[in-house]
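Mods, move this if it's the wrong board.
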Amino acid sequence: MTDGQHGLMTHPLGDPSALQEKDALSRLWEYFLHEDNMIMQRANLFLVAQSLQLVAYTAILSAAGADGHQAERAVLTAHVIAIFGVALAAIWIYVGHRQIRYTDGLRSRLVAKVPDFAETQAAVHIRGPKAAVFIAYTIPALAGVLWVLLLVVS
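Not the wrong board. Structure tokens:
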């Protein structure tokens, strides 16, 4: 028997298929929470990595000294770090994009299967991009621009 309004199967209590459906919805919810959390955790990881690269970059350039050969090696080393920074920013965008697509797919499934989740999503919907979009695209794009500018000026 199906509830036509929400597409949910309705079964008598204790029915094995009802328990399986409940377990499936619980797993779906856990997947969603896990993946939503992973966006933030990965962003933190990338931010720390980018910060450490920036510290290394500035430390190498500030410790270079006036000696021509040593200064030249320091600039080369700084360029290598900056290139890795650009690569890391690109990877961050790629990983964030995949994570957002996956999380959006899970969110859509939850909206379709869990009426109170759908109601909550509708009630709290705010126009404009989600925060995850800024975390996945804007921050790494800014980091990439920073690294490119540092490559140009050093």
